[in-house]
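Exam prep: given the inputs below (a chain plus C2E), describe the expected output before reading on.
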Amino acid sequence: MINKSIRRLLLIEDNPGDARLMREMFNEEGAHSIEHVHVECMRDAEAHLAQHGADIILLDLGLPDAQGLEAVRRAHAAANHVPLVVLSGMDDESMAIQAMQEGAQDYLIKGQIESRELLRALRYAKERKLIEETLFAEKERAQATLDCIGDAVVTTDITGHITFLNPVAEEMTGWPEQEAKGRPVTDIFHVLNATTREMIPNLMEQAIEQNLAGQLPFNSVLIRRDGIEIFIEDSVAPIRDRAGRTIGAVKVFRDVSASRAMAQEIAHTAEHDFLTGLPNRLLLNDRIGQAIAFALRHEKQIAILFLDLDGFKYINDSLGHPVGDKILQSIGKRLQKCVRISDTVSRQGGDEFVILISEVDCAEDAVLSARRILEVLAEAHCIDGEYLHVTTSIGVSVYPDDGVDAETLIKNADTAMYQAKDSGRQNYKFFKPDMNVRAVERQSIEEGLRGALQRHEFMLHYQPKIDLTTGAITGAEALIRWTHPKRGSIPPDLFIPIAEESGLILPIGRWVLREACTQVCAWAKAGLPMVHMAVNISAIEFRDANFLENVFAILQETGMDPNFLELEMTESVLMKGAEATEKTLKVLREHGVRLAIDDFGTGYSSLSYLRKFSIDSLKIDRSFIRQITTNPEETTIVSAMISMGQSLKLRVVAEGVETHEELAFLRGHHCDEAQGYHFSRPVRPQQFAKLLEGSVEVPMQA
Ligand code: C2E
Ligand code: CA
Ligand code: CA
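Solution:
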């Protein structure tokens, strides 16, 4: 064995006696095959090693030209890879030990060596050198790998403190290895779930504790030291010693932001139109499906608008496709501005666009969108410095009336679009003919409303409110009446929503308030008792920036005492933008104006919510009053509303009281006030004056 591994031995020894002794020892053991070379100084040794090398070196530390550690270093330098065994005298054993730290594999003390021992020492020295070299190479290889692989690597010891970070890990965590070493891994490694923003517990600790490999969940982001977030994937494994005991953990992770982005990009491409970037048919169908599910749950409707450009083929043919493409892009952008974020504008291909209007309250709402689109698209498109005009025809279908799935709705909107083209383009048509009639009517009402104030077509009727204990008239509610020059009287339920959508409610509302205030003052001047005047305020008015200013200006202008004005608004007015609402109500209240919640019970307000607002009374919606006689089991709702209102120290008013029974019930449950046909319909001012005079009796007997 030794003969095989050690063939050429270099003995560096200046003492001839010692050298001879050595040779004899080899001979004794029969190690004849070892070729000895004997030199007497370091210089000769260096020359020999440079030329011939050796399998092992036996070095005396007291040479004429090199002593002690210097001798070791020079021998080492001359033959880095050759195992070195040092020979020392008894008196410098400590020197020999130092020599081992310098790279010698072993030392032998002269005069204490036996020949068998000598050979074993040489063999072991050779083996140790071999292992050392292999380990070194292994470590070098690992280090080189860790330094140049694209993955980040972190290791910790058993207590979870960092022991190593490769350059990629330094880069990704933002921590240099020198700074990170010795810190708890949780100091440098913060990982969140990208969506929930919840911290993800450290897997390395888990790997150590449970001696198990693991992986981060999908969608994990690493928060770098400077706060930048990086999507990562990782795997963690415990590091074990030979006995299988865990001594630490290793985590390998990589930046997957790019591949994540690529996946998103691919998904985006599959669902979007390349030319305009709008959702394509696939995504639209999906969105329609979702909108239908939502509408079904919330009893809403949705509308589909099918758009086809008029004469687009002509543009393509005469100006070329590049220009056509630019027009389509310009149209796509404009369409997106015409709708809410929750709506979807899609391009089907060619010059066809389909728009999903989600959540409409009534089909006529789609009319507003269609008209706005026609208007916006009719404006010239500036393409390459030229102004080009394109018009559009729109077909409208409505869920659930015209279909309950995406395919049918789109098909029917398409059919309606052809009718729009037939009837002269730059136009919209509903799929159902009666919808077109209604749309036309709506438009005619809006047009009629525009000049109605100037033409003095409005007037107010007044309906008394009755105190249910005394039977006295406590107030009047002003209700608007409109006489259309051609169509005659149009009920407010029909025109108020249109006035709201077109913004016309603002001047109309101001007129109502001024007229009502003027009227109470006129009655008081005529010697009639002063009553509270209730005026209905719509959400649009309430949210108008000048609302408060207008109210106070009108009070001043008419000389009305604010303490006699009451404003009625529905719960929905209060529910939106609660903070601003609270402020406005407070200001009104501070000026003495009373506030009532109209149509109470039809909205979504909760008791705790109402408590926040400065309110004086609740008007129970007439649909509940109707139930008193038609649905006696439901009367508990009405009695609950009465006692609830009173527990909040609010006056409770019953609306729409029509019968003796209803009145009897309300009095029995101590409702404060009531209003309804049973006492009086809304009447003209002169008639109301008669009620106030007492010349017409208000029926109180139940
Ligand atoms: P509202 O505020 O709930 O007004 C009460 C409605 O119930 C009035 O309808 C009134 O005529 C009717 N009514 C009163 N007693 C009875 C009854 O015993 N039985 C039945 N079935 N109905 C009764 P009107 O005048 O048609 O007004 C309808 C709605 O139009 C009002 O409902 C209000 O929301 C709105 N409105 C009316 N005038 C104005 C106004 O000047 N400004 C605003 N913003 N909205 C107004
Ligand atoms: Ca009212
Ligand atoms: Ca009401």
